[in-house]
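Final report, section 2: Outcomes. Of the targets proposed, N-acetyl-gamma-glutamyl-phosphate reductase is the one most frequently requested by collaborating groups, and we therefore present its record in full.
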Amino acid sequence: MSNVRVGIVGPTGYAGMELVRLVAGHPRMTLVYLAGSGARTGPLDAHLPHLHVLADALPPVEPLDVHKAADLCDLVFVALPSGESGRVAWEIAQAGLDRGVKVIDLSGDLRLPPEAYEAWYGRPPLPREAIAQACYGLPERHRESIREASLVANPGCYATACALAVLPLGNLLADVKGPIVFDAKSGVTGAGRAPKEHLHLGELANDVYPYRVGQHQHTPEIEQALGGAVRVLLTTQLLPIPRGILVCAYIPIPPDEAPMVYDRYASFCEREPFVRLLPDGQLPHIKAVNGTNECHLAVRWDERSRLLQVFTAIDNLGKGAAGQAVQNANLMFGWPEREGLNLVPLWM
Ligand SMILES: NC(=O)c1ccc[n+]([C@@H]2O[C@H](COP(=O)([O-])OP(=O)(O)OC[C@H]3O[C@@H](n4cnc5c(N)ncnc54)[C@H](OP(=O)(O)O)[C@@H]3O)[C@@H](O)[C@H]2O)c1
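The predicted structure is given below as tokens.
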């Protein structure tokens, strides 16, 4: 099926506006429906002037009507704040069941079992049947289930960068003794567009600091994405830059496996269209992946500490959100995975 009719709920948010950019450039997608809270309606470029170049291809932004979304669209991306997004995605999926409408939710609402969601997000979960219907959308782990899914829970940005640092270990993960430590840093768009005091330029500039240590909601998501066999310690830190995530994972692999570990990463990355193992000696840069769906990865065995260091860089709005959502849509519709995602990074 080509020329799939696409809706985006939340196009005035950071993830939503990146979806608009990617969908508008996708050869098999046509934007037919844009909807938000009702606070910002009408032409999207009236709210986001940089999208003026797409004005002729954009429907006006309307207050959300779940049934209209399900009637007009073959595919709907939902990019609302957690707590709202999963419910809307589930309602659209229900309303569009007969028509086979596919829905991708970018929030955390459908990613975790109800008990874990309540514990880490601090709010009541969605009904168990909604969560059970959603397929966790990390293509590098769940590609075949995503192809069959009608409702996908798109992974979190930190969770994606951390999981991709470890998944190439494959069955060696079972031999990892002790927790995996992730030192993770993100640009400020990861926090969304709604104004908050700690995100003002005066607070953010010339500073880097840890936040939600030991409490970040992506902790159980990473453990789940790694199959539940390993404990993780995640330190999230805020960078005074707009976008991008850099992770360093410290992994206690059995030392006698160290000589073979680079080959494990190399064979994983050869199979994966968006995960690139950097040549030995090179380390990732956020700027080299910004604006794309790529993940750059580097591996280093540290003989002195006997720890494996794995670095990943992704764009939180790309492979961490909108790019990954389009990759999932490509899988759900049976298209080549890189369709619409051959994007040149924004180095400057
Ligand atoms: N930012 C990232 O890097 C990132 C990465 C991965 C996942 N995500 C997830 O993606 C989702 C969106 O994140 P974001 O950063 O794009 O957030 P954001 O910048 O705060 O945007 C939120 C969007 O939701 C709309 N909205 C808010 N309340 C609504 C309601 N009750 N009904 C309909 N629309 C409503 C807003 O539209 P109005 O203008 O109409 O108010 C806005 O378009 C979140 O669940 C987030 O966790 C974000």
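The chain is about 30% helix and 20% strand.
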